[in-house]
Amino acid sequence: MSRSTHTAVDEKLEQLRANGTPHAIATVVRTLSSTAAKPGMKAIILEDGEFAEGWLGGGCVTSAVRRAARLAIASGEATLVCLRPEELLDEANNEVMVTLARNGCPSKGSMDIFVEPVLPLPELVVFGEGPVALALAQISGWFGFTLTLCSKMKPVELKFDCYFSSPNELANSANKSIDRYVVVATQGAGDVAALKSALSGSAAYMAFVGSKKKFASYVKKLLAAGISKECLDKVYSPAGLNINAVTPEEIALSIMAEIVKVRRAKGGREGTDD
After folding, report:
1. For 198-210, what is the mean pLDDT?
2. Model confidence pTM above 0.90
């Protein structure tokens, strides 16, 4: 890979990561016989299979890598694409995380290409500034979440990625993650405004820290504000798994456990008993 191509790939990677755009990096790790691409050459492939930057060879290589990249981004798992002439495919082992593809090009060369998905970190949005909200915000980083905090006061002791001082400010922002988990932990201090803001966007998980009775008391106001019953039915209330939590830290842990459960189920990687 030439210096200019390497620079272009690096610049595109920085741009995609800054924008939170899912993509895959395909790297040639081995070649046999005659191939256009050489070990070390890279390409960036987007979610729809489009090559955003880089080059790995002709149509045979491109189509195989496109398919593998789309699957890798969708599953979140890397794969090794083993491109072989047809007469050598039967000799190759179709192992886990290995994708076999036929090389129909006249060169009859073989290539191994490692395709690695690069997905944006999931986002945890926390409304509130009480003990439960702060405890949940504090542990979010341990589980690989970026943190967006919406509270009247900006806590100096917390590390966060985005901060909004009001629910309206958050609702009107361009901050729209594709993998978002939202917890309203205002606990009586602006519950309805926070719920309206939270429910104005899409999320993989939406929860309210409070009793079912308390949430039910807000339903009429939320319906009048234009929130659909379908959206309201998706709200986890009370938030968190039932672990008999009492302290703010225990409640925060139960909420994070529920988020992890929902996220793993969404990704098709639920835990199993060994």
Report:
1. 90
2. no
